[in-house]
């Protein structure tokens, strides 16, 4: 890893310093036979082991911000239907992966974590949209005293934060856009996303790039100019060894980073 660049503004404070270490536990420190992903137990475990935390957020039917990755509930709760069609109170009654853990609100997760870990909050805002989720998350973060960053694939979401809450650290997510879901997008859009052409819109402070984009000559150029790069999702020490010279940190799961 190279020497750390300095941010354009000191407003980020500790969040900027923690961008480079420690490693980031993907959806908390979870395991198939232990704490479920994106659960308070997974966040507690990450804090106990000294890791930073990545988590996913979206809005409920009554406009509360909850921590959950999928659009649909069934994989983790066994309940059919979309998360967005349920209230926060209803979701709080559902059990995650057969455990006693429930779907937490972002506010509850940050209260548990406190100042113990850097938190990367991935906004599950559809591409091209922006609005209530950004506003709700920004208000929650203003009341949190620990280091945080917002991340996500939607450049317009980042642009909203750059305009309205520039003191909140922002990281633009991207990957190769060659998977089955991405093939539903127009080829021109896939190409622009994979080539990081959304940076001009997003104005991010760092990049979070999928392993299928690394190593990347374009990312190396941006990094040389002071744009940090975090790799995701790294699932083995061998994968990390293959890209670590082109990155500043990693989002990991399934092994001890």
Automatic annotation (TrEMBL):
<dbReference type="InterPro" id="IPR017946">
    <property type="entry name" value="PLC-like_Pdiesterase_TIM-brl"/>
</dbReference>
<dbReference type="Pfam" id="PF03009">
    <property type="entry name" value="GDPD"/>
</dbReference>
<protein>
    <submittedName>
        <fullName>Glycerophosphoryl diester phosphodiesterase</fullName>
    </submittedName>
</protein>
<feature type="domain" description="GP-PDE">
    <location>
        <begin position="21"/>
        <end position="257"/>
    </location>
</feature>
<dbReference type="InterPro" id="IPR030395">
    <property type="entry name" value="GP_PDE_dom"/>
</dbReference>
């Amino acid at each position: 890893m190279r020497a750390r660049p300095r941010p354009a503004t000191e407003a980020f404070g500790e969040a900027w310093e923690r961008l480079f270490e420690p490693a980031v536990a993907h959806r908390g420190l979870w395991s198939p036979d232990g704490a479920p992903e994106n659960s308070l137990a997974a966040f507690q475990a990450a804090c106990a082991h000294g890791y930073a935390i990545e988590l996913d957020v979206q809005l409920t039917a009554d406009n509360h911000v909850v921590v959950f990755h999928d659009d649909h509930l069934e994989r983790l709760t066994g309940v059919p239907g979309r998360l967005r069609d349920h209230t926060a109170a209803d979701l709080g009654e559902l059990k995650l992966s057969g455990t006693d853990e429930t779907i937490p609100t972002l506010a509850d997760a940050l209260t548990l974590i406190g100042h113990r870990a850097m938190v990367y909050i991935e906004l599950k805002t559809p591409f091209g949209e922006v609005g209530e989720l950004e506003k709700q998350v920004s208000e929650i973060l203003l009341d949190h005293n620990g280091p945080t960053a917002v991340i996500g694939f939607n450049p317009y979401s980042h642009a909203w934060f750059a305009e309205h809450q520039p003191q909140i650290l922002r990281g633009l997510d991207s990957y190769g856009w060659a998977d089955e879901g991405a093939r539903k997008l127009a080829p021109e859009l896939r190409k622009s996303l994979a080539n990081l052409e959304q940076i001009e819109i997003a104005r991010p402070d760092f990049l979070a790039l999928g392993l299928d984009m690394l190593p990347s000559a374009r990312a190396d150029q941006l990094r040389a100019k002071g744009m940090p790069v975090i790799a995701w999702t790294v699932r083995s020490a061998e994968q990390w060894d293959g890209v670590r010279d082109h990155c500043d940190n990693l989002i990991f799961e399934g092994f001890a980073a």
